[in-house]
Design goal:
12 strands; globular; 200 residues; alpha/beta; Rossmann fold; 5 helices
C-alpha cells in the first residue's frame, strides 16, 4: 500500500511520521471490528507456526488496545503450551517485561492499556527469546512506525541484536516505505493476515 505522495516525502521525518500516524489510524478503524477480529486470528495462526516462537521463552508480546491487532489468542496458546510469556508494564519512559500467568489478571495502566499487575515478576530484557511488537505501520524493509511515545523503541534499543523482533499488523498497515532514522531499529519479520515478510 502507498500512503505518501512525492510532496509528503519532501517533509522532515517527524512531520511525515505524524501524517502517516493519522492516516494509519484511520485505515485501521475503517477495517471494521469483524474484519479486524478475523485478521487477528489469521495473524495468530501464522505466528504460532514460526520457528522463533517454538521454545519455552520468555517471549515479550503485548495486550492490544482499542482497534489494534489482537494477539490474545497467541498469548493463550503459548501459555497453554507452557511457555513463559511477558507483557510490558510502563514505568516512566520505559517498558518493563513482566511475566504473566494469564490475561485475566491484567489491569488498565498507561493510557488504559492492559498491563501486568505491579507485583508481576520482571524479566531482564537480555533474557527475552523473541519480541512481538505492534505498530501503526511497517514497510518491507522492516521499518516500524510506532505511536510516538518511544516506549517500544527504547526497549528494542536495549535488546541484544540476535533476538528476533516480529512486527504484526493488518495488511493495510504495510507500506511501500517509511521514514527511518539512524536510531530506529528494524524488525526481523512482519506478519499480517496474508503473509510473513522476512526481513533479516
Amino acid at each position: 500500500m502507498t500512503a505518501e505522495t512525492p510532496g509528503d516525502r519532501e517533509q522532515d521525518p517527524e512531520t511525515r511520521k505524524a501524517r502517516l500516524r493519522a492516516a494509519m489510524r484511520t485505515a485501521r478503524v475503517e477495517l471494521g471490528a469483524a474484519e479486524r477480529a478475523a485478521a487477528s486470528a489469521e495473524v495468530c495462526g501464522l505466528l504460532q507456526g514460526m520457528d522463533e516462537l517454538q521454545g519455552d521463552g520468555p517471549y515479550l508480546l503485548y495486550a492490544a488496545f482499542g482497534d489494534e491487532l489482537s494477539v490474545d489468542a497467541l498469548i493463550d496458546a503459548l501459555l497453554r503450551r507452557g511457555a513463559r510469556v511477558c507483557l510490558p508494564r510502563v514505568d516512566g519512559a520505559d517498558l518493563l517485561p513482566c511475566l504473566i500467568g494469564g490475561l485475566g489478571g491484567l489491569a488498565g495502566g498507561w493510557r488504559g492499556v492492559r498491563e501486568p499487575a505491579a507485583d508481576a515478576p520482571e524479566i531482564p530484557v537480555e533474557s527475552l527469546r523473541a519480541v512481538v511488537v505492534p505498530g501503526l505501520a511497517f514497510d518491507e524493509a522492516g521499518n516500524r512506525l510506532g505511536y510516538g511515545g518511544g516506549h517500544f523503541d527504547r526497549l528494542l534499543a536495549r535488546l541484544p541484536g540476535d533476538v528476533p523482533v516480529i512486527g504484526v499488523a493488518f495488511d493495510v498497515q504495510v507500506l511501500d516505505g517509511l521514514p527511518a532514522q539512524a536510531h530506529d531499529r528494524p524488525v526481523h519479520a512482519v506478519v499480517t493476515e496474508s503473509r510473513i515478510v522476512r526481513v533479516r
